[in-house]
Structure formats: structure tokens, C-alpha cells
Design brief:
6-stranded parallel beta sheet; binds guanine; globular
Length: 291
């Protein structure tokens, strides 16, 4: 039987560890604080932001949510970030993505103080990641790294194929796992939609990190025996047998590959729960950096 990498359980363990860290900080009169900005009314973003707010509350981190309407101007967003950048009590700033189409996302991300950029999306933090310097690492890649570490999955000299070149997952996880460090040191291939035939790459992969956002694309014929599957996809597909009329699936066809893999993350309950845990890890780190 393959190892089922349980992100929900691991995130709960991390939650307990983070609560202890927050309590220790509070003894020194430091309460970490995260500021969350939500622009517009995308239902998925609203759920993500309220989940982040709730996680903060559960572990004793202070958090504020600023909700701005869909027609907010770029200047109004920049003004809000500027206030938070200059507020000594705020350790982390998160602007929920995607932003409305009329807003220049890059300009907004560039305006966040890199020392408070707990999402790790500022080019200064991305540059540090690429150069192997300490900085904030984006939360989903950090969550994957933490799962590999806690499940003791050896990555050194292994061939890892990352599918998908997003700035949030694909590019940063490839850069993280190629570093000459423990639980990295991998031979990484970053594969994307321009690949004519992904099996040319995936069949030689010891570990596949699927983050292309295509429901159940990866089947057993794409992978080699004993591969480790890290599935970052969260896709909703119609399912009349469910009360809600849909179900969530990953980018990998879980049931199809299950008897061929050595370890796999389920969807939901795999990588997903780790993202928020890592956001709070980064926020607490930012508060510690002030000491
Ligand atoms: N939208 C989807 N994932 C993320 C994330 O990790 N951070 C932010 N800010 N927005 C997102």
C-alpha cells in the first residue's frame, strides 16, 4: 500500500507547534499580526481569506481583514498597503490574488514591504529564493517542502518533475528543490504547457509535483512504478451524486495511479491545508525578526 501523505494531520500538528511559539512570543509582549486584503467578491477568495483569518484566531495571532469593493482603484489599494507597511504592529501583509482585472498585480505586489511579504511574492524574496538566501518562501512550495521533510521523503539526487510554471507554485518549488540543502538537492525538470509530450519527462520522474490546474490529467501511464505524487491541483468537477453537485479533484487521477505509486497526497487534505499553516509560520517568523 502506498503512503498517503496526510496534509490535514500534518497541518494540525504544525498548528499546535505554532500556538506554542505564539505563546512564547506573547510572554515577551509580542503578538504577531497579519493584515489581509481582499478586493472584490470572488467567492473562492472570500473563503480562503476567512480560513486564513480563522487559523490566525485559533493560534492566537492577531489578524485584520480589509474588504474593498470590485471598483477599488489601484491608488486606494496602494494607500492601504502603505499604511500597513508603516504600522509597526503589523508583521505580515497578504493581498489575496487574483485581483480585479483593472488592477496591475505586479505593481501591488511590488509595493509590499519585502520584510512583511509573508506570501513570498515580492521579487526581492523570489530573488533570495533563487540565490539560496534567507527570505520568505511562498506558502504552497514551503508546505510541499515541509511534507517531504516530515514524511522523510529523500529528494537528494532524485529526478523531480514539476508540472506547471506559475509564480505561486511551479517556479518557486522548482527553485526550492534544486538548492543544495537537506530535503532538496534534487535534479529538477520544470515542465509546462509547451511540452509536446509530457510522458517524455514524467516517466523518468521519481517525484512528480503536479500544479498545472488540469483536472485528473496525470494517469498511471504517465508515471513510473513507485513514483511519489505531490498533487497541488484543486479542481471542482460536476458530480450529480454529490449533494453540492460537484466534487474536488486534483491534477492527478488519484484512483487510477494509487496502486502504482509509493506515496501520494490526496485532494482534498493533501497540500491544501499546508498552505495556511506556512503563511502563519512566515508571519510568526516576521514577528521574531523584530526581536
Ligand atoms: N491565491 C491563490 N493562492 C494564493 C496565495 O497563496 N496567496 C495569495 N495572496 N493569493 C492566492
Amino acid at each position: 500500500m502506498p503512503i498517503i501523505i496526510d496534509g490535514k494531520k500534518t497541518a494540525n500538528e504544525i498548528k499546535i507547534e505554532l500556538t506554542q511559539e505564539v505563546n512564547q512570543l506573547k510572554e515577551k509582549d509580542i503578538t504577531p499580526q497579519l493584515a489581509l486584503l481582499l478586493v472584490g467578491n470572488d467567492p473562492a477568495s472570500e473563503i480562503y481569506v476567512s480560513n486564513k483569518h480563522k487559523f490566525c484566531n485559533d493560534i492566537g495571532v492577531a489578524s485584520i481583514i480589509e474588504k474593498l469593493p470590485n471598483n477599488t482603484t489601484e491608488k486606494e489599494i496602494l494607500d492601504r498597503i502603505s499604511i500597513w507597511n508603516n504600522d509597526k504592529n503589523i508583521d505580515g501583509i497578504l493581498v489575496q490574488l487574483p485581483l480585479p482585472k483593472n488592477i496591475n498585480e505586479t505593481k501591488i505586489l511590488l509595493s509590499i514591504n519585502p520584510n512583511k511579504d509573508v506570501d513570498g511574492f515580492h521579487p526581492e524574496n523570489i530573488g533570495k529564493l533563487v540565490a539560496g538566501l534567507p527570505g520568505y518562501i511562498p506558502c504552497t512550495p514551503l508546505g510541499i517542502y515541509e511534507l517531504l521533510k516530515r514524511y522523510n521523503i529523500d529528494t537528494s539526487a532524485k529526478h523531480i518533475v514539476v508540472l506547471g510554471r506559475s509564480n505561486i507554485v511551479g517556479k518557486p518549488i522548482a527553485n526550492l528543490l534544486v538548492q543544495k540543502t537537506k530535503y532538496a538537492n534534487a535534479i529538477v525538470t520544470l515542465c509546462h504547457s509547451a511540452a509536446k509530450n509530457i510522458t517524455d519527462f514524467t516517466l523518468s520522474a521519481d517525484i512528480i509535483i503536479a500544479a498545472m490546474g488540469v483536472p485528473e490529467l496525470i494517469k498511471k501511464q504517465h508515471i513510473k512504478d513507485g513514483a511519489v505524487i505531490i498533487d497541488v491541483g484543486i479542481n471542482s468537477i460536476a458530480d450529480a451524486t454529490k449533494q453540492k453537485g460537484y466534487r474536488l479533484v486534483g491534477d492527478v487521477d488519484y484512483n487510477d495511479v494509487l496502486d502504482k505509486v509509493s506515496a501520494i497526497t490526496p485532494v482534498p487534505g493533501g497540500v491544501g491545508p499546508m498552505t495556511i499553516a506556512m503563511l502563519l509560520k512566515n508571519t510568526i517568523q516576521s514577528a521574531k525578526n523584530k526581536m
